[in-house]
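Kindly inspect what follows.
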Amino acid sequence: APGADVPGAENFGEGALLLLMRLSGHLDQGQFPPSETLPYPIPDEHGTGNQGKYGTVLMLSREAMSDVDTRRLPILDSLRFTSGDTFTALERYWHDDLVVFGTLRATQASVTPLFTTIKAGQTQR
C-alpha cells in the first residue's frame, strides 16, 4: 500500500498480494504494472479476538462483469485453491467495478487421531 514502507506511518507494514489476470476471451491486455490510481482495498474492520474480519478481497472490473448476473456470481463458486480452501464472500460492493470482501475457509475439517503402540500384556487408559 502507498506509504506502507515508511516507519511510523499509520499503515506501516500493510500491503496486498495482487494477482492480475486477463480473462479468457478478453483481448484487452490491461495495464501492467498498474498505475498509482489502482485502489488498495485493505479493510480495517475486526472480527472476534481483534483478528481481521476479512482476509481476501476480490475485485472484478466492469468489463469483466459485463456478462454476469450480479445477484449470483458463479465465479465465487468456482474459486478453488491448492490447499483445498474456498473463497467465502462476506460483503459485496458494486459501483463501477465489483469488490467482494471475504475470507478463505477450509472445505473440510479433518481430525488426525493420536496413535499409541500397545504391546501384548500392556493396558492403556
